[in-house]
Write a structure and sequence with these properties.
34% of the residues lie in helices and 13% in strands. The chain has 3 helices and 2 strands. It has helices at 10-23, 38-41, 43-54, and strands at residues 72-77, 80-85. It has a two-stranded antiparallel sheet. Strand 1 and strand 2 (80-85) form a beta hairpin. The protein is extended and about 40 Å long.
């Protein structure tokens, strides 16, 4: 696959993801990405990311253990865990 500086459109990305799922593959880079440790420790960078992404968009969250039994999720409920079945649509 040729390397480009252009972003892919949504339909292409989705098709690519499904293709990777079907073939149990992933994209491979030509080089190793190095992220400076300071980017993980910077309070200013975290505040920018938090405000630009985490507080602006809904975030789906399900800990792996919460999805460990098919058809059920565990959720915290007043300090305790309660099993809840997925609603059927």
């Amino acid at each position: 696959m040729a390397t480009t500086n252009q972003l892919l459109d949504d339909a292409t990305v989705i098709e690519r993801v499904f293709d990777h799922i079907d073939h149990e593959t992933t994209d491979l880079g030509e080089t190793t990405w190095r992220e400076p440790v300071e980017n993980y420790r910077s309070e200013a960078r975290f505040a920018t990311e938090r405000d630009a992404v985490l507080r602006r968009l809904p975030i789906g969250f399900c800990p792996f253990r919460g999805a460990s039994r098919g058809g059920k999720l565990r959720r915290a409920h007043r300090g305790r865990h309660a099993d809840r079945r997925h609603p059927r649509h």
